[in-house]
Amino acid sequence: MLQNDISNKAFQIDALDGLRGVAALIVVFSHTSNSQMYFFPGFDLSGIGKTGVFLFFLLSSFLLTLPLLSQGQSIFDRKNILHFIQRRFFRIYPLFCLFLLAGVLSTYVFFQYLGLENTGVPFALDWQGFIYHLLLQRGLGVTWSIVVEIKFYFILPILVFIVNLALKKGITFAAIIIVVLIVCAHFFSPANDALKNDLRIAPYLPVFLIGILLAVVQHGINNKLIRLPCQTIFISYLSWFAIAGLIFMTPSVYSVIVSPVDRYFFHNEFIIYSILWSCILFSVVNIPGMLQRFFQLKTLRFFGFISFSLYLFHSSIIGGLKFLNIRSDVDAWVVLAISSIASYISYILLEKPTSKIKLFK
Asked: How confident is the model over 17-44, as a mean pLDDT?
């Protein structure tokens, strides 16, 4: 069984590894369905990929904010800020760079030796496009969410600094400040105005802020500043209603129950998705029970550990099968199997070693 050797051990939450695995699998299920590759006949999950990405954003915000809150006003100390920067850089950029380099090299090879233009794995890319991606100015394929995520890293310390100032007046005041920020962010950059795979951080800021709000509440619980209500069964039921809501928002399910919609119908429902996932996240962290045990399953945690590589690689496997015109009733399973093996190798040989690099003490 893999162990989570990348996350902060002091804030390790096993169930959230499984939840991250679910986020990655949701994206895989969606993209295979988009290409008419189904794990089971009629198991059409087209259009749910965005909810998996929003869950990634929420988890990232929650898990990064929680340890930063413990630093208080020292978050901008040279030692702390360098530690944060190098952890984020070596967690994302080594694999991201290799992924992009594969696009540049494969584009050259396909054109030079096969005469194929605008073809590459994971996508066609030249050196200019490579630089633009590294500078967060472009995001082809699945990389758009990586660009948004990295942009969030730049503003997270500022947001946490504001929250820490508000915490001096109490948890309630800090929560109110965050809610105000969520409302303002949604007002100035409404989700309905977001572009498809928008590279701007502004439309997704409410998602990240909801993750910060959850982290503040969890910080209060961990430090005995907030007591969970005695009737925790209510929170547990709320999480099951949230799961039902997410299932209902699956385009194929909604089309059967209400009326036919396309797979993009719910893509801009950032706030609704974030609230539903927040109920589940809060429950699995704080309420022992069936749901928590489910997300602690070794299989889901395995997919959580390799989730970054799996997120990047699976689209290339789908594209490869389509390019080679290899189609069968089990092509979705083939995509998952090959992607998982490649991701495991990537995790062991690249992600784990590079995550331990420390340029600064």
From this structure: 95
What is the Cα–Cα distance from 21 to 300, expressed in whole angstroms? 5
Token pair 């869950």 is found at: 55
Q: Which of 205, 282, 270, 216 is nearest to 68 (CA)?
A: 216
Give buried/exposed letters for 1-20 (b at 16+ CB in 10 A, else e). Answer: ebebebbeeebebbbbbbbb
Whether the model pTM is above 0.70: yes
Instruction: Please give the DSSP secondary-structure letter assigned to residue 1.
Output: -
Q: Using omega within 30 degrees of 0 as the cis cutoff, is the peptide bond preceding 288 cis? A: no
CA distance 239 to 252: 22
Three-class SS state of 108: helix
Give the up-direction half-sphere exposure of residue 31: CA atoms within 13 A in the CB hemisphere: 26
Give yes or no for residue 144 having a pLDDT over 90: yes
Q: pLDDT per residue over 338-358, tens digit each?
A: 999 999 999 999 999 998 887
The answer to whether residue 72 scores a pLDDT higher than 80 is no
Rounded to the nearest 5 degrees, what angle is found at the Cα of 253, between the Cα atoms of 36 and 32? 20
39 vs 28, 81, 349, CA distance in Å? Answer: 11, 44, 29
Rounded to a whole number of angstroms, the CA Rg of the chain reads 21
AA letter at 198 = D
